[in-house]
Amino acid sequence: EPPRAHKRRAEIHSANRMAASRILFGLLIAGHAQARGKYALPARTRTFLASYRPNGRCQTRRIVRRFATEGTETLPSAIEAQKAGFEDAIGIGKQVASQLQNSNAPEVRGVLDALLGNEAGARGFFVSFLTSDGDDTIADQNPPVELLGDALAQAEEKVVGPLLVMNTVMPTAMVTAHKRSNSDSMAEMSMRVARRASILLEHSPRTRPIVEAAFGAAERAVEENPSPEGGPDEVAYWLRFYNKWGYDEEMRKEIAAALNDVLIKCA
Question: What distance in Å separates the CA atoms of residue 241 and residue 190, rounded to the nearest whole number?
Answer without folding.
Answer: 18
